[in-house]
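Entry details:
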Amino acid sequence: MSVYTTLSDDQFTDFCQMFGVSFAKAIPITQGIKNSNWFIQTKEDTADSPSYVFTLFEERPPEDIAKMATILNRLKDTLPVAAPLAKVAPDTKGSAPTKDSSPYLIHHEGKAITLVPCLSGGHPKQTTPNMCYSMGEALATLHNVLQSLTPAEDYGVPLYPWDQVRDRETQFMPADEAQLMNDIWQSYEQLPLDSLPKGLCHLDMFADNTLWDLENGNEKLTGLLDFTEVSVEHYVMDIAITINDFCTTWGDANEGETVHFNTEKKQAFIEGYQSKRPLSAAEQQALPVMLAMAAVTFWLLRLNVIYYNREQGRTGDSIMVKNPDLMKRLAAYHWNQVGVKNR
């Protein structure tokens, strides 16, 4: 998405004061598809140099965001994450707090708001094998560190019911697309899922949710973003989701271009991951199907965004929708590789 909820400068001023921040200017952020986000410049900032990111969570209930704040505070000493600021004043300008008692949230019309420091670096326009190795290390570190939050189910948010989205969307798909989706889903369900390690996973670690210092030949990871989807899931699914974006060059589906998956980058990612957390034999065997299933999940996610935007009348230049056909093509590529492996 970009920005769904409109706030006035007076509202920004009041909300930022609750976090002890002097508001000067809010700049809408156009990336992302689920929350309203702004960069916040303070009165102390120089021009075009924001200090914070202000997020209004459009869909997740405040109790889920409170869990996210705990997770970020657990990770902040080992990974480059932006932990939410604590309030310095009562939440008197927003709506009444819900049952969560997090010191890191304020509320507006029943929705949670956080303010986090900006991290250095920029989003990568392309990735390299070295960057994929670093991402493998980072994701494994995340999986290891979050094992200390127990029981994990108390900190992860529920997984989305993608099977319901599948059942709705396949009714309207061309037959070959519905067959592809259902075949991958069936193969996923036939995996020995009970033997695959699980824990708290990010589940949305795309390149646009990372920041890097890429100047002067550097390839240093400086930020991991968007922890709203952290859930208990198989680690190999989280690996597959991240590999799919970091190791794929996305063409323009509207112009008939295919996606290009880079196996060298995939191998670099796996080597980086295994340097921090070795994969079990079952995880390695499941990865090809998981790569296809991860692409199906994000194919459905993008179709779901289109569905709800249409249902709720969300239109306009501020609404960004990612093309579901790109994920469909990636799912088809991985499914073909599964077939080649099995022949």
